[in-house]
Design goal:
single chain; 252 residues; alpha/beta; 6-stranded mixed sheet; 5-stranded mixed sheet; 10 helices; 18% strand; globular
Length: 252
């Protein structure tokens, strides 16, 4: 079934009564794509929720694709770095962070990165005029980005994890390969898979919480939950709140 993003007062059972660890609350947030404004607003919603409903332990899980397309990739990373000093956070790697890092190692990746919205990330770090850069100047663009990229941002990118398991939930950016045990998944599938995963009706062994494929409203199925609401265009960010065997939503 599919659901909208209702008020945070509407609590319902998780698919299959899947549960998170006892005494834990998880806030899971989908793809951000440079929307630092929506992220800051979501922080306020989470903080307000915790003030009204204190939790013994609260964790925030971000599902990747922080950069590209939207206007403030640098701001998103800066906000998440600051957030980690005050809250328990876990940031997963998305395919856009993977290609960002690939460009830092191989300037020729710039052509592919631009097609995925990388120009906006470069501009957020002050690297401009790269739309028509040819192969001979791609190294110069990479070097300029290196000069402007704060070391803390680079270390943050390098520390991103591909997935995490908490209770009966498997959190990942894109999804998993059907028929392959969760502990044997390839990183390429965790970051990039789409139709084979989305069309699968099998039991993956855990409920997969993912992003990567934009949907108009969060998608809840018996084997997966999709949190990518295309925030960079839709102006809507979804946060899934998991506690015990229940789920609810925060909209931002």
């Amino acid at each position: 079934m599919s659901v909208g993003i209702p008020t945070d007062d509407l609590t319902r059972p998780t698919p299959g009564l899947a549960r998170v660890p006892d005494d834990s609350r998880i806030y899971a947030i989908g793809d951000l794509h440079g929307r630092a404004d929506l992220l800051a607003r979501m922080f306020e919603r989470i903080d307000d929720d915790l003030a009204r409903r204190p939790a013994e332990r609260a964790s925030e899980i971000y599902l990747g694709d922080y950069v590209d397309r939207g206007p403030d990739s640098r701001g998103v990373i800066a906000l998440l770095l600051e957030r980690a000093t005050r809250r328990e956070t876990l940031c997963l790697q998305g395919n856009h962070e993977a290609i960002f890092q690939s460009f830092l190692h191989d300037p020729a990746v710039l052509s592919a990165w631009r097609k995925l919205g990388g120009t906006s990330t470069l501009e957020s770090y002050g690297v401009v005029g790269t739309e028509d850069v040819g192969p001979a100047d791609m190294g110069r663009v990479r070097d300029e980005l290196y000069e402007r990229l704060p070391r803390a941002h680079l270390l943050w990118l390098q520390a991103l994890r591909p997935c995490v398991v908490l209770g009966d939930f498997f959190f990942v950016h894109a999804g998993v390969r059907p028929g392959v045990p969760l502990n044997r998944q390839r990183i390429e599938d965790l970051l990039w898979i789409r139709q084979e995963f989305l069309e699968a009706t099998c039991d993956f062994g855990k409920i997969i919480v993912h992003g990567h494929t934009p949907v108009a409203i969060p998608e809840v199925r018996r084997n997966r939950i999709n949190l990518d609401t295309g925030a960079y265009l839709s102006e809507r960010l979804a946060c899934l709140v998991l506690e015990g065997r229940t789920m609810r939503w925060l909209a931002g």
